[in-house]
Amino acid sequence: MIDSSRSAQRAVIQFLRAEGDHASQIYRRMKEVYKEQCLARCTMLRCCPRYEAGRLNIKDLQRPGQAHVVTDSATISAVDELIRQSRRITTREIAVELSISKGTVHHIIHKKLGYGKIRAQWVPKYLSENQKTTRMGVCLTQQCLH
After folding, report:
1. In sequence order, what are the residues at sequence separation of 6 or more whose Cβ sits closer than 8 angstroms to the Cβ of residue 95?
2. InterPro entries per the record (predicted)?
3. Which residue range(s) make up the domain with 26?
4. Of the candidates 72, 55, 70, 66, which has an alpha carbon nearest to the alpha carbon of residue 18?
5. Is 117 within a domain?
6. The overall pTM is greater than 0.90
């Protein structure tokens, strides 16, 4: 089995470029070997001049942009505590209070905590054990009546 990772393919590009092959030749040769896992032609056209200019690193370089924020248990519990203190709190207020993005707050509330908003109040989407028992009792009563 051949290694088809991006860095492995870049190493091949770097080697073939050092041999003097042109980008289009490199692409054709690599397409035969890697098939669907082959890097895109435009990627190869971008890589070849970089390796000609002396780039040695085949790994991805750091890109500027917003850092990925991991939602840890402390942040999740802080959001949960804010919601329990005030069921009418907004995602914007939570984001400002905890200095995190609104998107992160939204993800924590809906995916991690399982809350939904009904009539401007946060409520759990899932039933508690007492609510499940009550509903089961009502269903059984209705079943006996029919």
Report:
1. 101, 102, 104, 105
2. Transposase-MT_Hybrid
3. 6-53
4. 55
5. no
6. no
